[in-house]
Design a protein that fits this description.
Layout: H1 2-15, E1 26-34, E2 44-48, E3 53-57, E4 63-69, E5 72-78, E6 83-85, E7 90-93, E8 97-99, E9 102-106, E10 113-114, E11 122-123, E12 130-135, H2 136-142, H3 147-151, E13 157-161, E14 169-173, E15 181-185, E16 188-189, E17 207-214, H4 218-221, E18 228-234, E19 242-250, E20 254-265, E21 268-279, E22 288-300, E23 305-319, E24 334-350, E25 353-370, E26 380-381, E27 384-385, E28 395-416, E29 420-437, E30 446-460, E31 464-475, E32 479-492, E33 498-509, H5 513-517, E34 519-520, E35 523-524, E36 532-545, E37 550-571, E38 576-599, E39 602-617, E40 638-647, E41 651-660, E42 663-664, E43 675-676, E44 679-691, E45 694-701, E46 709-711, E47 714-715, E48 720-728
Parallel strand pairs: 1-8, 1-9, 15-18
Antiparallel strand pairs: 1-4, 2-3, 2-5, 5-7, 6-9, 10-11, 12-17, 13-14, 15-16, 17-18, 19-20, 19-48, 20-21, 21-22, 22-23, 23-24, 24-25, 25-28, 26-27, 28-29, 29-30, 30-31, 31-32, 32-33, 33-36, 34-35, 36-37, 37-38, 38-39, 39-40, 40-41, 41-44, 42-43, 44-45, 45-48, 46-47
Length: 735
């Protein structure tokens, strides 16, 4: 760690040295933005003039500045495979400063801008880390019923849900546990303390994009980011005011109604939407109901200062019948959840430096109830019979998990020496909660964490992009830890069509409230727990072919998850237990991805993940599925997806084939099942414009009506079909 700090300090010191300028007094300056207005830092521009060829690198807000130019005519070119400069990027330079603002058009297979990888906008090919962006066009085309359905198409990610829409949903990034990924909504961390987040009820409401960064990112985000980060970004629509509405109905008593408005008036822009969805989910006592809303409100206080307020909330109720594949359904158990997320960002830009002040609040309040005893049952699976009779754990008042997370932070980013973008920030998080069975006094834990981080994104020789960073994190449970990260991307060739990349980092995760502060005799909290840790590495290549109509990507990864917290009995005479750092797992494998745009009206997306995950040190003494040498639970060795989209403004549609291989699992009913069968699911959708601004849509999920279980004991939905109408005023643009 001392060596890391020394190297970082040396690099930052070198960046502050004055640069020798070529003869001349001319200056060429401007900004580089996408066609949507998003600034793109850290891009390499090639400036060709009468006597020389220079390279400059864009800084914060996409600003660039070439100094010491002699008088004459200059042309600019871009070294980035997924972008094209629009218009005629050339101008004359004299002794005065010349301004030339540049706009980027997307190539047929576009380059994505990602925020979660560096905490500011960055072209994906320059960050060196493994990341996937599901943009607004892809989200809209998919017509997914849930966010989990969208995440099935991300390489390195496995999902599992206990039945239909709204049931408990888990996300596994590169073989990590379901609480090993940091979940952000518009930059606000929303995980429960300890990393848990139930993705099952989460709907894709008003989303502009989903960013998934794979690999440890605790160097930027501190706790929870052992395996990766998932960032959900609410849509923004600067432009003429418009509104939209839609309604859907279909199988399983499906009803979805949605409405919203967006636009810009002077310095103020808004996007506000709400939705209500209900369905009976096919199984007994599985009915799901949710009402939710999301908003993004922006205000340009001045040419240099902007404010943005983001809001998101949901109110959910769903029945929880239990593992009905093995026994009678529990007809009275239920799950209720209310979430609220609010984020405020104030950004001020002056020259090559940007300042950002953030404040966020995340509320997650859920209640699990089972008021009546539905009677005993003996689990059965075909000709297999369980060894024990099971009963309900009756809790008339319910088990409550009410957690609040208040976060604040300040970040400054500046360009030094023309080739370095340096980021420095500090954060404070306050975690509180009211958790436990309502039949007993609730636990009211509190925890305050704070940390500081630094990052240098540098360009070496115009082709090598190096990111070096680290964080010092102080956690109220485990004390102070340092977490570094390094990433490199090397662009091969003048056009930037080939990019080699590699990254490595470490991650940390705090214990849950119960693990640190629990007071139950049978599960006493342990205040001396160490953080769960990870060490991750990956390396890969991205290749663009056929005039940017085909992009291929391959990445090999190795993740080591250490000091995992597990429950252990310390007194077998009383069965008293506590939590200890005893588990260790390893996950390594290969991720493949392809994207093609052979015609303007056709696109193809494909991904495959091979995962070799294994338990290295046993964490659970009671279940053999956690024994040393066993494969990781519910994380398939082979999985993939293929999506095809087609059509234009009048008629369009698509299909997605999801393939999931065999995976280790447990019935947890003493039946003896330790493996779950693989499955294939085909989803189709089509849309047709009836009249301007009005379209009809049809979505069919699990078209082949395959029977499968994402988690043993919980049947997934069979074939379901829904149809509806969608209206948009103003510009006929898909969100």
């Amino acid at each position: 760690m001392r060596r890391f700090v020394f190297v970082l300090a040396a690099l930052l010191s070198a960046a502050t040295l004055a640069r020798a300028q070529a003869p001349g007094s001319g200056v060429l300056a401007g900004t580089v933005r996408t066609s949507e207005g998003t600034p793109v830092p850290n891009l390499v521009l090639i400036v060709r003039g009468p006597d020389s060829v220079r390279t400059v690198v864009t800084g914060p807000e996409g600003r660039f500045r070439a100094e010491g130019l002699g008088p004459g005519h200059y042309r600019l070119a871009l070294r980035a495979g997924g972008f094209l400069l629009t218009g005629t990027p050339e101008t004359d330079v004299s002794g005065a400063e010349t301004t030339l603002d540049l706009s980027l058009a997307a190539a047929p297979v576009r380059e994505h801008i990602v925020v979660a990888a560096t905490r500011d906008e960055a072209a994906l090919s320059t960050v060196g880390v493994s990341a996937t962006v599901l943009d607004s066009e892809r989200i809209a085309e998919r017509e997914a019923s849930s966010v989990l359905t969208l995440l099935e198409e991300v390489p390195g990610v496995a999902v599992a849900r206990t039945g239909g829409l709204g049931q408990q949903g888990s996300l596994f990034v590169r073989g990590g546990e379901s609480n090993f990924a940091r979940i952000l909504v518009d930059g606000v961390p929303v995980n429960e303390p300890g990393g848990e987040y139930n993705l099952g009820p989460l709907l894709p409401l008003e989303l502009d994009r989903i960013e998934v960064v794979r690999g440890a990112t605790s160097s930027l985000y501190g706790t929870d980011a052992l395996a990766g980060v998932v960032h959900l970004v609410t849509a923004r629509y600067p432009g003429a005011a418009r509104w939209r509405a839609e309604a859907q109905g279909g199988s399983n008593d499906w009803f979805r109604g949605e409405a919203g408005t967006a636009g810009q008036a002077g310095r103020f822009d808004w996007n506000v939407g709400g939705a209500h969805l209900s369905t009976d989910n096919e199984q007994p006592n599985s009915a799901f109901r949710q009402t939710g809303g999301a908003a993004s409100l922006g205000f340009e206080a001045s040419a240099r200062t902007t404010l943005r307020l983001s809001l998101r909330g949901e109110d959910t109720e769903v029945g929880t019948p239990g593992p009905t594949a093995y026994g009678r359904p529990d007809l009275d158990a239920s799950f209720e959840r209310q979430i609220g997320v609010a984020g405020l960002q104030v950004r001020h830009v002056r020259g090559r430096t940007s300042h950002e002040l953030r404040a966020g609040f995340a509320l997650q309040d859920w209640l699990s109830r089972d008021p009546l005893d539905s009677g005993p049952y003996l689990p059965r699976a075909g000709d297999r019979v369980g060894t024990d009779t099971f009963f309900d754990f009756v809790d008339p008042l319910g088990f409550q998990q009410d957690t609040r997370r208040l976060s604040t932070g300040y970040q400054v980013e500046t360009q030094l020496g023309g080739r370095h973008i340096v980021t420095v920030g500090a954060e404070l998080e306050r975690e509180t909660g009211a958790v436990g069975s309502r039949a007993e006094p609730l636990l009211h834990p509190e925890r305050t964490n704070y940390g500081g981080y630094a990052q240098d994104r540098m360009v070496v020789g115009g082709r090598l992009f190096l990111t070096l960073g680290g964080r010092i994190e102080h956690n109220a449970s485990f004390g102070t830890r340092a977490v570094p990260r390094v990433a490199v991307a090397w662009t091969v060739g003048e056009t930037g069509s080939t990019t080699l990349k590699a990254s490595g980092g470490t991650g940390i995760k705090e214990p849950t409230f119960f693990e640190s502060y629990g007071v139950s005799f049978y599960a006493m909290g342990n205040p001396d727990l160490e953080p769960e840790r990870s060490v991750t590495f990956d390396a890969g290549v991205e290749q663009r072919l056929a005039g940017n109509r085909l992009r291929l990507e391959a990445t090999a990864f190795h993740h080591d998850y250490r000091d995992q917290i597990n429950f252990q009995i310390v007194d077998f005479s009383t069965f008293q237990g506590t939590f200890v750092n005893v588990g260790r797992t390893r996950a390594q494998g290969l991720e493949l991805a392809a994207e093609a745009a052979p015609r303007p009206w056709a696109r193809l997306f494909a991904q495959y993940t091979y995962l070799d995950g294994v338990v290295k040190e046993r964490g659970d003494a009671f279940n053999e599925v956690y024994a040393e040498g066993r494969p990781l639970l519910r994380r398939p060795k082979n999985q993939g997806s293929l999506t095809a989209t087609f059509g234009g403004s009048r008629l369009n549609g698509g299909g997605t084939l999801v393939l999931v291989g065999r995976r280790a699992d447990s019935d947890f009913q003493n039946i003896g099942l330790t493996e779950n069968e693989g499955y294939a699911r085909l989803d189709l959708r089509a849309r047709v414009r009836i009249v301007p601004r009005l379209e009809a849509l049809v979505i069919a999920e699990n078209v082949l009506d395959r029977e499968y279980q994402e988690i043993l004991g919980y049947p997934a939905l069979g074939r379901s079909i829904r149809a509806g109408l969608r209206f948009r005023s103003g510009e006929a643009r898909r969100p």
